[in-house]
Write a structure and sequence with these properties.
Blueprint (H helix, E strand, L loop, with lengths): L3 E7 L3 H12 L4 E4 L12 E4 L2 E4 L10 H10 L4 E5 L2 E5 L2 E5 L3 H8 L1 H16 L8 H9 L1 H16 L8 H7 L5 H13 L16 E5 L4 H13 L3 E3 L2 E9 L4 E8 L4 E11 L3 H7 E2 L5 H5 L3 E11 L9 E4 L8 E4 H4 L10 E9 L4 H4 L2 H15 L7 E14 L5 H15 L3 E3 L2 H4 L5 H17 L19 H10 L10
Parallel strand pairs: 1-2, 1-12, 2-9, 6-15, 10-13, 12-19
Antiparallel strand pairs: 3-4, 5-8, 6-7, 10-11, 11-12, 14-17, 14-18, 15-16, 16-17
Helix pairs in contact: 1-9, 1-17, 3-4, 4-5, 5-6, 5-7
């Protein structure tokens, strides 16, 4: 082990491992510290319960970035399968295909409600809210008040645990930009009539029809990335919780204190630190405390838990997942792991569903016993009607803290204050990934932030503006077709720093 590492990476999720692999492949010294004693991959890991495999949230593999597609193919050249995307919305006792099918939605909503939705949409277009500040105002401008109430309000408030008027419009602009009602209607009519898109047609964000997926879950990708990173000479230490970061301005050197699972303390030194840990935790660990400490403490996170129900074979459920917009149940989304990959099912025949509950760490759901959560999940799956709870012969619960950075009305100001101080006082501290940047990035965006930061370190200068990922870059959800196009397209990376 070196006394002083060139780069220390906090977190072995997609961002951290993409960064570490890029550095190690370029012959650079890198050490990764991961808090989990067993799993790499962070929220993109694959959990294992008695041989049944499941995602923490579900992770499709798609990107228009050639670098990301090349990375995936390099790490897992023979283990991808192509999966059809099938998902539905459950709302007030009825299922809606998602993306919507026009005739089905018309039938389920009824002519009167459909007409009210169109009138509401027309009113929103004639009288838009100027400079929308909240999620509610942004979606209302795009789709009208009634469609907002049916297809956005309940699910969004389940996810975030706050009213849609408290959520920043930034989140809506980032997550559903490029999707318009007109495009959705055209796409819905095409689906209803069974008309396929032309081969050269442009896809619409969120309307992809297929995606690639590792045959035994996304954890395959990150376990393989960790192995190959180490084969290139990088180091990985599991079960290390970072407790303190100190910067010696004279020596331009970081000291990072980590605690092992057995309680022993280790101290590492590095020239550069990359962190995919939540900004709030990172800033709290720094000594002396940065001036932006109070900005970091104001940042909020949404946690969630998955109740996995394993049951006797049911009538084949085609969905990958189902969004639960119905306000009568607490569950927000249901994953069907067989439809992600048949190899996720240990015995090859059982039904394995993951009921996702969004919560805050420490609240009533989070602190409920596993037995109570399993009983809740069984009662709610019966209401939805996709599994007979009496057929569930086994179950488990997985909790995921800090799954989503919260976009409240103060988050942007707080993140900007932290960014300014780090740039001025700690230029060798690099924020990467979803929680590391407090930015609701997809898996490929998180990877890109790590890869570009690594390339900046290799170059010895800031060639790439990492914060422009998922803003300037032309990412969209084009599925397998987009991935294939990316293999021959020009490189899609954020702009170089002037």
């Amino acid at each position: 082990m070196r006394d002083i590492h060139e780069t220390l990476v906090i977190g072995a999720g997609p961002a951290g491992l993409a960064a570490a692999y890029t550095l190690a492949k370029n012959g650079r010294d890198v050490l990764v510290l991961e808090q989990d004693p067993v799993y790499v991959g962070g929220i993109s890991r694959t959990a294992n319960y008695k041989g049944f495999l499941f995602d923490i949230g579900g992770h499709r593999f798609f990107s228009k970035s050639k670098e990301i597609v090349d990375f995936w193919n390099e790490i897992l050249p023979d283990d991808f399968i192509e999966r059809p995307r099938l998902s539905r919305i459950f709302y007030r006792g009825k299922f809606y295909a998602y993306p919507l099918k026009a005739f089905e939605a018309l039938r389920n909503l009824g002519l009167a409600e459909s007409a009210r939705c169109m009138v509401s949409f027309g009113f929103a277009k004639l009288f838009p809210i100027k400079s929308p500040r909240s999620f509610h105002e942004w979606v209302r401008n795009q789709f009208g008040e009634r469609l907002f109430g049916i297809f956005f309000k309940t699910y969004t408030e389940k996810v975030w645990g706050m009213g849609c008027d408290e959520i920043s419009a930034d989140w809506a602009a980032q997550r559903i930009k490029g999707l318009s009602l007109g495009a959705a209607i055209v796409d819905g009519l095409r689906r209803s009539l069974g008309i396929r898109k032309s081969a050269g047609g442009e896809g619409v964000k969120t309307l992809i029809e297929s995606f690639r997926y590792p045959r035994r879950g996304p954890g395959m990708m990150w376990e393989a990335a960790a192995r190959k990173m180490q084969a290139f000479g990088g180091e990985l230490r599991m079960g290390r919780s970072v407790e303190k970061l100190q910067y010696d301005e004279t020596r331009k050197l970081w000291s990072v204190t980590a605690r092992r699972g057995d309680g022993e303390v280790e101290i590492f030194q590095a020239r550069h630190v990359m962190s995919s840990a939540p900004i709030r935790e990172l800033i709290n660990a720094m000594e002396p405390a940065p001036l932006s400490l109070f900005n970091a403490r104001d940042l909020k996170y949404r946690d969630f838990l998955t109740v996995v129900l394993i049951g006797h074979p049911q009538k084949e459920l085609p969905d990958n997942w189902i969004y639960i917009h119905d306000p009568s149940v607490k569950v927000g989304r249901v994953q069907n792991f067989r439809s992600w990959s048949p190899e996720m099912i240990a015995d090859g025949v059982s039904t394995c569903l993951g009921l996702e509950y969004f919560c805050f760490e420490g609240d009533g759901l989070w602190t409920s016993s596993d037995d109570a959560l399993i009983e809740l999940a069984k009662s709610e799956i019966a209401k939805i009607g996709i599994m007979n709870p009496d057929d569930a012969f086994d179950a488990c619960v997985v909790r995921q803290p800090k799954a989503y950075p919260v976009y409240d009305d103060a988050y942007a100001q707080n993140v900007e204050a932290i960014r300014r101080e780090i740039a001025m006082r700690f230029p060798s501290l690099h924020l990467i990934g979803r929680n590391g940047m407090h930015k609701y990035n997809n898996q490929d965006h998180a990877m890109m932030t790590g890869m570009l930061t690594a390339l900046n370190i290799v170059a010895g200068e800031s060639l790439y503006d990492v914060w422009s990922v998922n803003e300037d870059a032309e990412y969209s959800e084009s599925g397998v077709s987009g991935a294939r196009e990316a293999l021959s397209s020009e490189r899609l990376v954020p702009r170089k720093v002037a």
